[in-house]
Amino acid sequence: MDRPDGRAIDEIRPVSFQPDIAAHAHGSVLVSFGDTQVICAAMISDGVPRWMFQQNVPGGWLTAEYNMLPYSCLERKPRDISRGKIDGRSSEIQRLIGRSLRAVVDLKGFGQRTLWIDCDVLRADGGTRTASITGACVAVEMAFMRFQEAGMIKRSPVRQLAAAISAGVWEDTCILDLNYPEDKDAAVDFNYAMTESLELIEVQGSGEEAVFTEAQMLEMLRLGKKGVAEICALQRETLGSFDPSNDSDLLDRIRKGRK
């Protein structure tokens, strides 16, 4: 079987992380899954939501926002503000990003602060939610590395990395990391969010007007684990070469509490 871009059935698209893409964010990357590109930024501010005070919940909070820029698709996508409400798909995805990161971040480990994650899709070619989770995790760890460098926390609250990948049934074959042409015509589509130890955080999957077998479900899970393991290795490589002291002005702003 020939895939549209020539990949093997168990091959992920080229994945890359360009650090510090947003100069004022505490941590940021431009993550690319093939032609899909997402800017993921993390910023930490003092204070937590009111409900945490009211319920005496200790520690901090983590929340995410997801947005597809108008020019990220072949046809212009109107901004949510022009409709007066957030798009239902965007709302679902940003909640998924938040849940995925809260699963691996110790919320009690960074004080009464809120960690804001923003994921903005520059170019969509399938897998924007999986790229967002993957890039957001790197941006979050970079932000915590900077706060540790600035002496604001003793250690990073990230217990382990998280990443996400898609798998599906396309032309009667289970494949890994669907691009847009594959996603559009897939009979079955799954998204896996996992930890770097390959524990499952969340699974989203359904037949697109089709059914699938238990054997296919297990094969897609196997492919998903393979893809996440490869992506987490790339995340670790990026973080291993990241220098949190490379922006003295940003470190000074963190110490002074200026956002």
In short:
By secondary structure, this protein is an alpha+beta fold.
Break the fold down into its secondary structure elements and pairings.
Elements: E1 15-19, E2 27-33, E3 36-46, H1 50-54, E4 61-68, H2 80-83, H3 88-102, E5 113-123, H4 128-149, E6 162-170, E7 173-176, H5 180-185, E8 188-195, E9 200-207, H6 214-240, H7 248-256
Parallel strand pairs: 4-5
Antiparallel strand pairs: 1-2, 2-3, 3-5, 6-7, 6-8, 8-9
Helix pairs in contact: 3-4, 4-6
Molecular structure report:
With 259 residues, the chain is α+β, with helices and mostly antiparallel strands. The chain has one domain (15-75, 88-241): GHMP Kinase, N-terminal domain (Ribosomal Protein S5, domain 2), CATH 3.30.230. It has helices spanning 50-54, 80-83, 88-102, 128-149, 180-185, 214-240, 248-256; strands at residues 15-19, 27-33, 36-46, 61-68, 113-123, 162-170, 173-176, 188-195, 200-207. The strands form two sheets. Strands 1-2-3-5-4 form a five-stranded mixed β-sheet. A four-stranded antiparallel β-sheet has the order 7-6-8-9, with helices on both faces. The protein is globular. The model has no long low-confidence stretch (mean pLDDT 95).
